[in-house]
Amino acid sequence: MSEPLESDPSLLVVVLDVNASAWSKSPLTVGNALQQMVIFINAYLALKPENKLVVLASNKRECKCLYPVDRANATIERDIRVYEQFRVVDATVLSGVQAMLSGAEETVGDPNRGIEEGQTLMSRALSKALCHIHRVVDSTTSKVWSRILVLSAADDSPREYISLMNTIFAAQRMSVLIDICKVFGGDSVFLQQAAEITGGNYLKVDTAGGESMLQTLMFTCLADHYTREVLVAPTNETIDFRATCFCHKRVVDIGYVCSVCLSIFCEMAPVCSTCQTKFSFRIARAESAQSNGTLKQSPKPAAATAAMSTLTLS
Ligand SMILES: [Zn+2]
Ligand SMILES: [Zn+2]
C-alpha cells in the first residue's frame, strides 16, 4: 500500500442519518444539523478542486443517494452569485432529505423488518458507500483516498450487527476511514467499533451542552489521509467492544463462541445455527468430571473437537 501524498485527491462519502423519530428527541434540530453539514461539505469541496463527494441518506426504511444526481433530471435554478458546485450540492442534499423526512411520516406503520422505529439502516448505507467508493476508485487512474463520515442520530440496530461488522472489515481492507459524528443520545457500540477498526474518529458532540457540531467536524474530519498523519486525533478511551449474539440479536457481556465459524451465542446450544456444526460435549464433560469430580454443564474448549468456547467481551 502506497503512502498518501499531499497532492492526492480525496473521496468523501457522507452518510446522513435522517430517522425522523430519532431526531425528534434531539436538542439540535435536523434542519440546523443539515445546514452545518452543508457548510462542512462546501469547505471540503473548496479544499481541492479534484476532491470528490457522495452524499447518502438513510432512515429506518430506505437508503438513498442524494448526490451526485443525474443532471438531466435535476431542476436547480441558476444563481451567478454562488459557486456552481456548492449550489447544486446544497440544493440537492436539502431537498432530498426533506423528501425523505416527509415520506417517512406518510409510511408510518409499514412492516419494519425487525428494525425498530428509532433505528436506521446503517449497514445498508455503509455498504452502498463502499460500492460508490469502489466505482470511483476503479474509474480513476490516479490514487484517490477515501473516507466515510457518518452523521448518526439513531440507536444501534442489533439485528444489523453481522452485516455491519462485515461492512466495517471490508472498509478496513479497502483503507477507507470511517468517521462518526454522534450528535446526541448514548454512545453507539457498533459505530465506535467502526471508527476504531478503520482508523477513523468517533466524535460525540454534546449539542445540549453548547458544543458546536460544525466546529468539531472542521477540526477533526476535514483533514485528508495525508494531513491526518501529522495531526493528533482525539482519542477514544472508553470503547465498548461488546458483540451481539447471533440468536437473539442482543448485546452480550459474556457469550459462547462457535469454534468453527466464530458465531456468538448468549446461550449454550447443541448445534450452531450458523454453520450447523454439532458440538461434542462428551470430551469437555469428561475433562470437567476428571478435574472436579462432578459433571458441569458449562463446556470448555477441547482440542480437535467442535466445542463451544466461552468468550468474555469487554
Ligand atoms: Zn442470543
Ligand atoms: Zn458455527
TrEMBL record:
Tell me the compartments it is located in.
Nucleus
Any one Gene Ontology molecular-function term assigned to this protein's record: zinc ion binding
- Coiled coil stretches, renumbered: none
GO cellular component: a single term: transcription factor TFIIH holo complex
Q: Which InterPro entries match?
A: TFIIH_Tfb4/GTF2H3, vWFA_dom_sf
Recorded hits in Pfam families, A to Z, give: Tfb4
GO BP annotations listed: nucleotide-excision repair; regulation of DNA-templated transcription
Keywords for this entry?
DNA damage, DNA repair, Metal-binding, Nucleus, Transcription, Transcription regulation, Zinc, Zinc-finger
Q: Which family does it belong to?
A: Belongs to the TFB4 family.
Task: State whether it acts alone or in a complex, and with which partners, per the record.
Answer: Component of the 7-subunit TFIIH core complex composed of XPB/SSL2, XPD/RAD3, SSL1, TFB1, TFB2, TFB4 and TFB5, which is active in NER. The core complex associates with the 3-subunit CTD-kinase module TFIIK composed of CCL1, KIN28 and TFB3 to form the 10-subunit holoenzyme (holo-TFIIH) active in transcription.
Q: What does this protein do?
A: Component of the general transcription and DNA repair factor IIH (TFIIH) core complex, which is involved in general and transcription-coupled nucleotide excision repair (NER) of damaged DNA and, when complexed to TFIIK, in RNA transcription by RNA polymerase II. In NER, TFIIH acts by opening DNA around the lesion to allow the excision of the damaged oligonucleotide and its replacement by a new DNA fragment. In transcription, TFIIH has an essential role in transcription initiation.
Name-wise, this protein is General transcription and DNA repair factor IIH subunit TFB4
